[in-house]
């Protein structure tokens, strides 16, 4: 059977299922466990209070000036409490009832900017769409969406790093470039987008995350850090998924036709299967704070306190031992059989305490845009280039160009 996965990182191994590396005691280098088994990966991610966040350079984020620990890098009871308080913004029923009309209006407006017979770059349109939708949820509504989009994108122009090293393997010059490339866009993001939103919410609360943070006593700097988190997770990564899903649908006539006539539940199943096959974030990192015993079949291992754990999401999601006998983890099979308790998206939104709360929002907003896009019968003119981003440990898709027919069939 031919593999259907399009985002394949050159040289990335898919075995062994559990691997220990770097245990030679070299200074500044962590012992790293590569977990490619779905069974073992879920055990690590569900080892509540035995691990701390180590991805997204979390361990290099200074905490001294923050009154509140950021939700992305908090752990234990504090993280549980933070998650409980923001859950109401991402509950499926709330997302559907509150944001569907705005998503539909936004999608129609952005698609309507390309006339019949015209061309559009989907990844650029998807960026503005996801920024506008997520900005409404977060409360970043007092500034220009296109300009905010550019500021968020500029934050990702970072030098490479090695997360297995305590200093991230960067030279002094690279750290200086990272600070300049990161802090300058964040400063602009604060001044142009976050601060005006905070000022407006201090005058009058709304039903959004910034208003909630103001009520919780967060400082402006605390709120900025949270907005960067939601900005990267809710806007930038969803942009990549929308583009990837469209790429699969436009290259597979049968899947596209099925999606076009399906009800919402079946469309969601198709999107969940695409993101299982093509997880935007390919690696999740945890630092063990206590020994963790993991098993995979008849094998067992103990991860010691201080070890770094790399949950290899692309491998775990395609784990052949987690599939039905007649199914291939690298094929695209909506509604496939998965082990009991495994999300239809696999580990693409994480698992355990740090599971992404924005899954319902990401799937719904992707569906709203894609149904309207495909109803216009676009023609694929240029396929995207696949790139890789170290910060999110995921793929980027750029340059997917579409042409709308001279006589548009209208929106759905």
From TrEMBL:
InterPro entries: Cyt_P450 (IPR001128), Cyt_P450_B (IPR002397), Cyt_P450_CS (IPR017972), Cyt_P450_sf (IPR036396). GO terms for molecular function: heme binding; iron ion binding; monooxygenase activity; oxidoreductase activity, acting on paired donors, with incorporation or reduction of molecular oxygen. Signal peptide: none annotated. Residues 1-29 are annotated as: Disordered. Gene3D superfamilies: Cytochrome P450. It holds the Pfam family p450. The keyword ATP-binding does not apply. Keywords: Heme, Iron, Metal-binding, Monooxygenase, Oxidoreductase. Belongs to the cytochrome P450 family. This is Cytochrome P450. It comes from Isoptericola sediminis. The lineage of its organism: Bacteria, Bacillati, Actinomycetota, Actinomycetes, Micrococcales.
């Amino acid at each position: 059977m031919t593999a259907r996965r399009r985002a394949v990182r050159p040289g990335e191994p898919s075995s062994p299922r559990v691997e220990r590396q770097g245990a030679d005691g070299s200074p500044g280098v962590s012992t790293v466990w590569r977990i490619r088994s779905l069974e073992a990966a879920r055990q690590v991610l569900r080892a509540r209070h035995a691990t701390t966040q180590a991805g997204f350079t979390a361990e290099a984020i200074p905490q001294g000036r923050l009154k509140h620990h950021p939700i992305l890098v908090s752990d234990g009871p504090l993280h549980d409490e933070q998650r409980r308080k923001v859950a109401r913004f991402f509950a499926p029923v709330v997302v559907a009832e509150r944001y569907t009309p705005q998503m539909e209006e936004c999608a129609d407006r952005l698609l309507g900017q390309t006339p019949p017979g015209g061309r559009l770059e989907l990844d650029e349109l998807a960026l503005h769409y996801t920024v506008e939708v997520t900005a409404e949820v977060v409360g970043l509504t007092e500034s220009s969406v296109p300009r905010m989009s550019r500021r968020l994108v500029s934050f990702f122009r970072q030098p490479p790093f090695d997360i297995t090293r305590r200093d991230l393997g960067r030279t002094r010059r690279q750290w200086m470039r990272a600070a300049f490339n990161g802090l300058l866009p964040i400063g602009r993001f604060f001044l142009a987008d976050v601060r005006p939103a905070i000022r407006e919410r201090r005058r009058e609360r709304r039903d959004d995350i910034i208003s909630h943070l103001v009520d919780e006593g967060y400082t402006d700097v605390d709120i900025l850090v949270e907005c960067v988190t939601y900005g990267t997770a809710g806007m930038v990564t969803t942009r990549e998924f929308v583009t990837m899903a469209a790429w699969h649908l436009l290259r597979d006539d049968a899947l596209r036709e099925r999606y076009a006539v399906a009800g919402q539940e079946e469309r969601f199943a198709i999107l969940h299967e695409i993101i299982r096959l093509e997880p935007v974030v390919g690696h999740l990192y945890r630092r063990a704070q206590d020994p963790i015993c993991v098993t995979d079949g008849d094998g067992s291992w103990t991860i010691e306190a201080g070890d770094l754990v790399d949950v290899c999401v692309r491998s775990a999601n395609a784990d052949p031992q987690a599939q039905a006998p007649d199914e291939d983890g690298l094929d695209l099979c909506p509604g496939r059989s998965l082990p009991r308790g495994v999300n239809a998206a696999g580990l693409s939104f994480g698992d355990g305490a740090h599971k992404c709360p924005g899954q319902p929002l990401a799937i719904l907003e992707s569906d709203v845009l894609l149904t309207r896009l495909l109803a216009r019968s676009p023609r694929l003119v240029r396929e995207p280039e696949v790139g890789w981003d170290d910060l999110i440990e995921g793929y980027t898709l750029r340059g997917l160009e579409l042409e709308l027919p001279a006589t548009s069939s209208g929106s759905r």
